[in-house]
Amino acid sequence: MCAAGSLSLRPLIGDKKFYREALAVMLPVTGQQLLTSLYGFTDNLMVGMVDAAALSGVTVANKVFFVFMGIFWGITGAGGLLLSQYFGAGDKKSGQIIFALQHVAGIFVGLAFTILLLLAPEQMLRIFVKDAATVGAGLGYMELIRFSYLPAGISMVTMFSLRSVGQSKVPFYVGFLTVSINIFLNWVFIFGKLGQPAMGARGAALATLIARVIEMVFYILWVASGKSWFSWNIAAAGQASKRLLKMVAAKTFPLIANEFLWTMGTNMLFWSYARIDEYSLPALVIVEQSMQFVYVMFGGMSAGVAILVGSRLGAGRFDEARTNSRRLMFLGSVIGLILMAIALLISGPLPGFFNVSDKLKQTATLLIRLQTVFFIPQLLYTIIFFILRAGGDIRSAFRLDALYTWLVPIPVAVFMATVVPNFAPITIVAAYMISQAVLNAKLMAAFKYYRKEHWMQNLTINHEVPLPAAEGSL
Predict the structure, then answer these.
(1) How far is the C-alpha of 165 from the C-alpha of 87, rounded, in Å?
(2) Whole-angstrom distance, CA of residue 401 vs CA of residue 393
(3) What is the DSSP letter of 40?
(4) Residue 467, Cβ density class (10 Å: 0-12 exposed, 13-18 middle, ≥19 buried)
(5) What residue ranges do the domains of the chain occupy?
(6) Burial of 160 (C-beta count, 10 Å sphere; 0-12/13-18/19+)
(7) Contact 134, 59 (CB under 8 A)
């Protein structure tokens, strides 16, 4: 641990070396995140050209995948913070063990979700909606998409592991190829091209399943080629020492709990919006999909933190880690302003691509414009969250993410959905704005935890290392 530090304005603007390294890491990851976002966006856009019920059905079915992703963000988040530090320390053996442990966990989770969706698909969908047409479309999509969970899990573990050690170009190239395949197959199967029957939502699921299997195969071949920092020696998981297993468990389980609770929290927000106005769900889907093109920078920032902060901590370069963390926050603020302009530009024309009513298009446009208010707070919070995680301060990250979400925004949203309508009508726009304002208020607490510098730790060694005092003050 280190003594509590404070912010300084002086080192916020980095030098050319900092920006070269930051961009070298962040740009490929941002591009890959953009491509990943296209997976869901193309499904929703093309299905949205069929009808609103199909669009809502696919979105609700993907809520289950969002929970699945939450668990994997916990697994890969813990693995990533350790990998980036071991990479900085040059400890390849421990890195291989972490890589293998993640895959063992990933295969187990992938199989578990596949079995769950084989046994109870309709029950999972009816948690969110009751409309028969929406449930029917979702079930058609679920019949095929549930078999994509295992290959998606293997790909995600490999992708995030490569990012954590700065090998971010490969995920970009693989993402470009598989998204291109997904878009082409969507066109073929959804609309019935090249002699294929028009499958609608089921066609989107089949296209995504094929693309995810191809993605997994490419990652398997890349690691097998010997060009990455890892190998497919999954047996290395059995070589983990008790200390390493204890540290992995101490970081992994809280992060899985955090990501799972946060994901369930966002689903609770979606449930609340559905209770307030189920008719407007397609507008919310359009907003979610539109924002994916803006939020791609979040993935780039996480990769920047892993290398510019996490690897420095693992190498014992604490002053550099502290300075880089401040520079990343400044860079994030600038990027937030740019993203606001992009979102405002797409807020008008983008909803027009979906086959929904004019009223829903207008609602979507208004919600996108309201969301831009929170871009800078969201980016700053995301950077701080990943900084805390990079240094192993999982307790603070958990309090900020999962605990705050369930103690403040969720009760507010549920209150608006269940109590307020008994006294006065509330629109989906008002409920969305209030929920987002309450959700982003946690930024102030995030700065507090950042200044404490409990995240300033080298996790690759057995003993505490005295840290230099914090520089300057804000």
Answers:
(1) 6
(2) 13
(3) H
(4) buried
(5) 16-452
(6) buried
(7) no
CA distance 268 to 277: 14
Please state, rounded to an integer, the average pLDDT across all residues of the chain: 81
Average pLDDT over residues 214-237: 88
Q: Is 226 left (phi over 0), alpha (psi -120 to 50) or beta?
A: left
Q: Are 39 and 179 in contact (CB under 8 A)?
A: yes
DSSP secondary structure, 90-140, as one string = T-HHHHHHHHHHHHHHHHHHHHHHHHHHHH-HHHHHTTT---HHHHHHHHH
> Alpha-carbon distance 350 to 344, whole Å?
11
| pLDDT tens-place string over residues 412-442 | 999 998 899 888 888 888 998 999 999 999 9
Question: Where does 129-200 have alpha helices with state H?
Answer: 132-145, 149-164, 169-191
Q: Which two tokens stand for residue 331?
A: 């860079």
Average pLDDT (372-393) is 87
Other residues' Cβ atoms within 10 Å of the Cβ of residue 340: 18
pLDDT of residue 334 exceeding 70, the answer is yes
Predicted local distance difference test score (pLDDT) of residue 39: 64
**454 token code pair:** 């409990």
CA 133 to chain centre: 29
Residue 191 falls in which region: left (phi positive, over 0), alpha (psi -120 to 50) or beta: alpha
Q: Which of 116, 28, 22 is nearest to 67 (CA)?
A: 116
Residue 453 φ/ψ region, left for φ over 0, alpha for ψ in the -120 to 50 degree band, beta for the rest: left
Amino acid making up residue 52: A
**Cβ(449)–Cβ(384) under 8 Å?**
yes
| Tokens linked to 242 | 């008790």
How far apart CA 8 and CA 469 sit, in angstroms, is 13
CA–CA separation, 6 and 66 (whole Å):
36
Chain position carrying tokens 């095929």: 144
What the block records as the tokens of 240 is 């983990």
Cα separation of 232 and 196, whole Å? 38
Q: How far is the CA of 206 from the CAs of 114, 144, 222, 331, in angstroms? A: 15, 6, 25, 40
The answer to whether the beta carbons of residues 382 and 400 sit under 8 Å apart is no
SS (H, E, C) 294-306: HHHHHHHHHHHHH
Q: 83, 167 in Cβ contact below 8 A?
A: no
- Among 160, 81, 90, 75, smallest CA distance to 390 is for 81
